[in-house]
Write a structure and sequence with these properties.
With 199 residues, the protein is an alpha/beta fold. The protein folds into 2 domains: 13-147, Ribonuclease H-like superfamily/Ribonuclease H (Nucleotidyltransferase, domain 5, 2-Layer Sandwich), CATH 3.30.420; 157-198, no CATH class. The protein has 6 helices and 5 strands. It has a 5-stranded mixed beta sheet. Strand 1 and strand 2 form a beta hairpin. Helix 2 crosses helix 3 (84-98). The longest helix has 22 residues, at 132-153.
Length: 199
């Protein structure tokens, strides 16, 4: 089923999504995208439904054809400070603030959001599979975060962040059990089935 390009036709709307909420390590990333109605982008879909190669091939096209886009993040330390849900919203706020075109309506993937500077918003459950702008934001957030995780993997290769991207895989948790935590781990998360294994 084709994704909806715009939810309405009178306001400038930005699609917003995040990546990395369920990870044990690394930042949470968010992106905001304002699409150009005159420049269609074929193949937009929820980033989770696309292959890695498809996501990376769509990224430059999104950046080239969008009226505006921005990507932002909050660190694992900030996630520990604010909690992951609030950090996801704050990362979206940072991305929205960076947009070169001010949106008049925000399409938010999910069912909750902290309002941003008086701009109306609509929460859309599974919005990344329904609206093109949210799908575009999901692709940017995912690929930029993956790039970052591959970069810090070079410093801590034992955790295989170039493959698991910080998600709680068996091998990632085995590495935490064997080597302990790194400066990139989210200490407020349950890193192992029992925290006692860390000590």
């Amino acid at each position: 089923m084709a994704l909806i390009q715009f939810s309405q036709n009178s306001l400038i709307e930005a699609g917003c999504d995040e990546a990395g909420r369920g990870c044990l390590a690394g930042p949470v990333y968010a992106a905001a995208v304002i699409l150009n109605p005159k420049k269609r982008i074929k193949g937009l879909d929820d980033s989770k439904k696309l292959s890695d190669a498809m996501r990376y091939s769509l990224r430059p096209e999104i950046e080239d054809k969008a009226l505006a886009f921005a990507v932002a993040s909050l660190t694992n330390a900030e996630i520990d400070q604010f909690n992951i849900l609030k950090s996801s919203f704050l990362a979206m706020h940072k991305a929205i603030k960076l947009l070169q075109v001010k949106p008049q309506l925000l399409l938010i993937d999910g069912n909750r959001f902290i309002p941003y500077e008086g701009i109306p918003h609509q929460c859309e459950i599974k919005g990344d599979a329904r609206f093109q702008a949210i799908a575009a934001a999901s692709i940017l957030a995912k690929t930029y975060r993956d790039d970052y995780m591959k970069e810090i993997h070079q410093e801590f290769p034992a955790y295989a962040w170039d493959k698991n991207m910080g998600y709680p895989t068996v091998s990632h948790r085995a590495a935490i059990s064997k080597f302990g935590v790194t400066p990139f781990h989210r200490l407020s998360f349950k890193l192992l089935p029992t925290q006692l294994q860390l000590f």
